[in-house]
Amino acid sequence: MQALVQEIQPAELDPQNDDFQIVDVREIPEIAAGKIENAHPMPLASIPMRLSEFRSDKKIIMVCRSGARSAQACIFLQQKGFDNVYNLRGGMIGWVRAEKPLTAG
After folding, report:
1. pLDDT tens digits, residue range 30-82?
2. How many Cβ atoms are within 10 Å of 82's Cβ, its own excluded?
3. pTM for the complete prediction?
4. How many CA atoms lie within 13 A of 48 on its CB side?
5. Which of 8, 6, 10 lies closest to 102, judged by CA?
6. Which among 1, 20, 38, 62 has the fewest CB atoms less than 10 Å away?
7. Confidence of residue 3 (pLDDT cuts 50, 70, 90)
8. Which positions are tagged coiled coil (predicted)?
9. What residue ranges in 9-53 does DSSP mark as E strands?
10. Residue 51 and residue 47: Cα distance in Å, rounded?
């Protein structure tokens, strides 16, 4: 059975909202081009070693360029028992198309 990945729209994501833990799974050179404010860089391959950094008391928002890598991260976290995980629909491409702000990586 394939895990169902919950999604959040760019318009629904407020980087200032303390209820969200935003995790950017892109590689560091990608993040250098710009990121969502308050997003924590955590390249996809490093997630298994960094599980203790995820907060069960917040909505965990996973972000990548298009949404594919972050969906993989969501599935992995769900398999580890997290049920508060969301994929940013469209990734950074969707974020920019929605004219949402970027900060320096």
Report:
1. 999 999 999 999 999 999 999 999 999 999 999 999 999 999 999 999 999 99
2. 15
3. 0.94
4. 4
5. 10
6. 1
7. low
8. none
9. 20-24, 40-41
10. 6
Q: Indicate the residue type of 18.
A: D
Q: Which of 64, 71, 74, 88 is catalytic?
A: 64
74 is catalytic: no
Q: C-alpha angle 36/47/103, rounded to 5°?
A: 15
CB 80 within 8 A of CB 57: no
Neighbours of 45 (CB within 10 A): 10
Domain 6-97: give its CATH code.
Answer: 3.40.250.10
Residue partners of 92: CB distance under 8 A and separation at least 6: 26, 34, 35, 36, 63, 64, 65, 66
User: Where are the chain's structural domains?
Assistant: 6-97
